Amino acid sequence: MNMAEQTLEVLICTVDERISNVVRNILPPCPFVKYLVSWQYNGDSSAIVPLSLANREDVEVIVHKGYGLSANRNYALCKSTGDILLISDDDACYRPEHFSRIKEAFRLYADADMLLFRMSDLAGRVFKPYPVDTYVYPHMPYGCYVSSLEIAFRRGKPVPLFDVRFGLGSDYLACGEEEVFVYQAYRLGLHIRYVPVVVVCTPHATTGCSFRDNVRVRRSKGAVLYMLHGFWGAFFRCLLFAFHQKQHTWSFFSDMFSGIWYIKHGKK
């Protein structure tokens, strides 16, 4: 199948009343794009799909019980059917040119199984420093990290599931599921490349940006580093990172080490 015939499926995860965000967001009709809304519903009554979504032929809403963003993403992955899959959230907004950029990038990098992109706020400002040039994962410039809305990949090669110990709604951690997902995809043999173009707008910075204010984010950083570098690799990286914070050095290190311990031993 050539690129012109391939479909792009946007996997939007939402929970309970947050489906109203999907209704308000910009989901432009596009000939080669379809939307899969994975609605994790835990209410007491039956879930009623909003008419504005139910009446669209390019939108499918799947409803299921469950808890945690990573589990929701896994459900969406299992139900997806598109040729190219784009990870999304219920506060993400798109423009037709975003989808064209994704498709063109997969045409240009025909050997890539997964591409990492940029995201911006609604005014076009990026939330974090991005490399100017493309790179092949895992050769990321220092200080770079992956956010979920930046990830798209081809159907075909096996991809990992999201680790449910990470992400919003998890027991002890708050984020980091996307970095672990990309790393595990790389370990499975996927060819992964970063492309420096914006493919989504979102009104909020990611959870991982709140390191200094959120203990669960600090635990998540330690946990992610353990998954990527093992115990001692994570230990020394956390120590160095905490030292460079210049304030709360030991409390920050302690929180990150708690994340290492949680993943290594399976207990808090």
What secondary-structure arrangement, pairings included, does this model have?
Elements: E1 8-15, H1 19-24, E2 33-40, H2 51-54, E3 59-64, H3 69-79, E4 84-89, H4 96-108, E5 114-120, E6 135-136, E7 151-154, H5 177-187, E8 192-201, H6 215-245, H7 249-265
Parallel strand pairs: 1-2, 1-4, 2-3, 5-8
Antiparallel strand pairs: 4-7, 5-7, 6-8
Helix pairs in contact: 6-7
Describe the model:
The model has no long low-confidence stretch (mean pLDDT 92). This protein has helices at 19-24, 51-54, 69-79, 96-108, 177-187, 215-245, 249-265, and strands at 8-15, 33-40, 59-64, 84-89, 114-120, 135-136, 151-154, 192-201. The protein is globular, with a radius of gyration of 19 Å. It has seven helices and eight strands. Strands 3-2-1-4-7-5-8-6 form an eight-stranded mixed sheet, with helices on both faces. It is α/β, with parallel strands linked by helices and 268 residues long. The chain is 35% helix and 19% strand. Helix 6 packs across helix 7 (249-265).
